[in-house]
Amino acid sequence: MTISGNTPKQTLIFSYGTLKQGFSNHTLMQSLISQNDAIFLGNYITDDHLPLVRGPYGVPFLLNLPGASRHRVRGELYSVSDAGLQRLDVLEGITLGHYERLPIVVRPEIGDSGDGGCRLVVDAEAYYAHRSFAEDMWIRSGKVGFESYNHDVAKGYVKRDLRPKDRSFRDQITLFCSSN
C-alpha cells in the first residue's frame, strides 16, 4: 500500500526476517527510522498462510505460494519513504533476482492467537523469494515452513560479509535448491 497526498509518498512494508528488531539487518531499519525514512507500526501477521523457509546461509525467504503452508507468518510493519524503499530494494537484491517486492495482506497481531478477534486487514508489500526459484525452495525445504523467523530459526545464519565471495548469492540459491 502506498500512502500519499501532501506528504511524501510512503509504502507499507511487512518485514519477516533479518530486518526485524533483534536481527542482523535491523540496523538498516534503525538508520531509516533515525533519518525519518521509516516508522515502525507494530507487529503484524499475514492474512494468508504462506511458507517461510531458510535458504542458503540460513537466509529467510517468504514464498509467494498462498495456502501451501499451515502457518500465517509473524513479522513487523513499517511505513517507508521512497528513499528508504530504494535502500531496502538494494539490500534485498531486487535487481539481482534474489527477492521481489509484491503485495501482501496483513493484520495486527494481537494476543497469542495472532488475530485476537481483530479482522482489520492492511494492504502492504513484502520481499518474497524471487518466483524463478520459490517452488524449488519450497520443495528443498521438505515443504515445511516456519511461523516466525525467531532466534532458534536464525541459528546458522551467515552475515553477508562472512559468506564465500567466489559465487554470487543467486548462484548459491540455485545450488541450494538443487542439492538434496
TrEMBL record:
Gene3D superfamilies in the record: Gamma-glutamyl cyclotransferase-like
Superkingdom in the source lineage: Eukaryota
CDD domains: GGCT_like
Stored InterPro entries: AIG2-like_dom, GGACT, GGCT-like, GGCT-like_sf
Function: Putative gamma-glutamylcyclotransferase.
Keywords: Acyltransferase, Transferase
GO molecular function term, any single one: gamma-glutamylaminecyclotransferase activity
Native organism: Tagetes erecta
Residues annotated as the enzyme's active site: 92
Cellular component GO terms held in the UniProt record: cytosol
Record-given protein name: Gamma-glutamylcyclotransferase family protein
Gamma-glutamylcyclotransferase AIG2-like domain span: 13-131
One of the Pfam families matching this protein, by short name: GGACT
Similarity comment text for this entry: Belongs to the gamma-glutamylcyclotransferase family.
